Amino acid sequence: MDTLFQLITPQDLIIACGIALLAGAVKGMVGFALPMLLVSGLSLMISPELALAGLILPALVTNWMQALRQGGGAAFASLKRFRIFLLAGLVFLLLSAQMVRILPQDVMYLAIGGPVTVFVLLQLVGVPLTLSRPTPRIEVLVGGFAGLIGGVSGVWGPPTVAYLTALGTEKSEQIRVQGVIYGMGAAALLFAHVGSGVMRAQTLPFSVLLVLPAVLGMWIGGRLHDRIDQALFKKATLIVLLLAGANLLRRGLMG
What we know:
Elements: H1 10-30, H2 34-43, H3 48-67, H4 72-81, H5 83-97, H6 106-124, H7 136-153, H8 157-166, H9 171-196, H10 204-209, H11 211-225, H12 230-254
């Protein structure tokens, strides 16, 4: 614990737990945005590298909770359906994670924030951007891009959610699919950043301490999710996705 307080003050640790609670609640309701909210919030107080380390275990635990909420059989079916997307994402995540300390992130944030923001704005004003079915080529492109930015920043949700929304995925299935995709990504992120040195003995306790508030937030958000219909779920998803895109643009422009 003394080592932890060399990296973050007790006051900032309490605030970090509050951010994890909020991030978990949003994730429980719409299925994503925990990395965006957690990394963005923590980076206001601590180094981006420590914020990324803090994200890893809460993301791993909450994503597998989300994936398995409807049972292992349903999760396996989602895994099988999106296997090409997952494989492409995992490969690019593992490759890009090794560049986290040397690759400028500004261009990556702008590259994903711009398209995501345009996609959401078009959806909100009534311009439909839909896909009738997921083709292998599209899955490789979107999955690879999601993995690429995920390994560098820990934030891989926006392109995945935009893709699932374009497919018109039903809300319960979308939550489950996101859990499976992000759960596999979170496991790969842990493995990759043990190798990169971001997750180490000094940063591990911080990540462990953020798991409980994130899980509590997930439970609160899950109760809200069960009370909303498909139309409201899509609108809430688009609003959170718009905030995600705008936040990525802000980080890309302002550093």
